[in-house]
Amino acid sequence: MKQNKQPECSLDALLRALTSYFGEVITDASKTIINLQGGTVANVCFVQGTAKTLLHGELPYKIIWKHTKKWNRPGDPLSWRREYDWIHLNQTFDLGIKLKMPKWYHREINDEENHLWLEYVEGESGSDLTLSMLEETAFQWGEFQGRCSLVLDQIVGGNLTDISFLESELSQWYHNPYDYTYLCSDQCKIPSFVKNTLRQNNWNDGRSIVYHYLRSEVCDLPSHLKQMIIDLDLSKDKVFTSLSKLPKVISHRDLWIENIFYTEAAVYLIDWDCVGIGYLGEDLASLIADDTPTNQLEDMFHPLFENYKKGYSIYRDASILEPKDIVIMILIKYGYRLVDHYWFTDSVVEKEDIVNRLSIFYSWLHQDTK
User: Fold this and answer.
1) Mean pLDDT of 20-28
2) Dihedral sign computed on CA atoms, order 272, 129, 357, 240
3) Residue 4: pLDDT above 60?
4) What angle do helix axes 323-344 and 282-289 make, rounded to 10 degrees?
5) What is the pLDDT of residue 40?
6) Which fold has domain 11-15+28-163+244-321?
7) CA 68 to chain centre
C-alpha cells in the first residue's frame, strides 16, 4: 500500500464524527491513519483507534476520512465538493434496501476544502467480486435508476454533472491541453519513444497527440480497430442524437469494481465525485468494461445487461435500451483511452491485451451480443 503524505487530522472533527458514530459523547480518541488514496480529487484515509466514552469506557472504531482540497478541474470546477453536496442531496431519497452508500458521520466545508467522515465498509470488492455479485449490483443500480427517474424533474441543484458529461469524455481526445514544445522537451516525463514520435511528426495543430497517433502509420493497431474509433468520431452527432432518446437517470459515472463493496446485507457504492444526470446504460458501460479482465468480458456482457434492464423495468420500460447502445457508450468512454495506453506502453503483453479487448468491442458492435 503506497503511503502518501498525510494531511492534518483535526481531533475536534474526529470526536464529532465518533460522537455520531457511537451515538454518545466521545471525550478523546487515539488514532492511526493509513492513506488509502492520494489523487487529484481527494485524499482518502482509513482511521482506526480507541474512543473514550462517558458510558462505556474505551471502544474500538474504524472510520473513513475523505479530505478534498479546492481545485479547478478543467470543465468541472466544482468537482472538489460534489460528493459533499451529493450527501446533502441524498438525504431526500434512499438508494434502496439492498443498495447503499456509506453513512456519513460528520462533514465540514469552507472555501478551500471539505472533510467527510464516512462509514468504513468491509466487503468483497475489486477482483474479488464474482459474476453473481456484479449481476446483483447491475440489478440494484438499474432498480434505483428506474425509481429515481420518476422524480428526476424534482431534483434541483445539488452540484450534479449534466447530460453532456459522456460527450465530453469523447471530445476531450480531440484537443491537446498541453504545450507541444514541452511534450517534446527533455523535461517532459512521457516515455522517450512517444517523445521521439512527436519530434518526428508535426502534430502541433491543437488536436490531441492521441488523435493524431490513431490516424498515423505509426499506430500499428489493426486497421479495422482504428477505423472503428475513427468512425465513431465521424458519426458523433448522429450517435449522440440517438443516445438522447434514452431515458435520463441519476448516473454514478465511476461505477467500476473498485468502487463496489458487496456484503451479505447490501451492495455499497463509494466515490460519488462525478455523480450527475446521464443516459440510461451509461453506468452499465463502465461496470462491464472498466478494468474488467479481457478474458471475462464475453461472459459478463449479457448477464449484466439483462439484470440491469430487469431492475430498471420494475419502475420504467427498459425496452428502448439495446445492447448496441452499451457498446457505443463503451467505445465513447474507453476507445481513445485504450489507444492512449497502447501507444504509451512498451509491453508486448499489454499491447496484445488491448488488441484483444478492442477486438471484442468490434465483434459486439457488428454482431448480436447475446
Assistant:
1) 95
2) negative
3) no
4) 50
5) 53
6) Transferase(Phosphotransferase); domain 1 (1.10.510)
7) 17
Please answer whether residues 37 and 23 qualify as being in contact, where contact means their C-beta atoms are separated by less than 8 angstroms.
no
Residues 6+ apart with CB under 8 A from 218: 197, 201
Three state DSSP letters for 131-187:
HHHHHHHHHHHHHHHHHHHCCHHHCCCCCCECCCHHHHHHHHHHCCCCCHHHHHCCC
The per-residue pLDDT for 303 is 98
Closest by CA position to 161, among listed 283, 277, 286, 240: 277
User: What amino acid is encoded at 170 in this protein?
Assistant: L
Model pLDDT, residue 2: 40
Report yes or no: 278 and 163 within 8 Å, Cβ to Cβ.
yes
In the DSSP assignment, the letter for residue 12 is H
Q: Domain extents for the chain?
A: 11-15+28-163+244-321
The separation between the first and the last C-alpha atoms of the chain, rounded to the nearest angstrom, is 40
Q: 258: which DSSP letter?
A: G
CA distances from 146 to 96, 161, 256 (A): 12, 19, 20
* Residue 203 in grid coordinates: 502534430
Question: DSSP of 75-108, one letter per residue?
Answer: T-TTGGGHHHHHHHHHTTS---SSEE---EEEEE
pLDDT at 5: 56
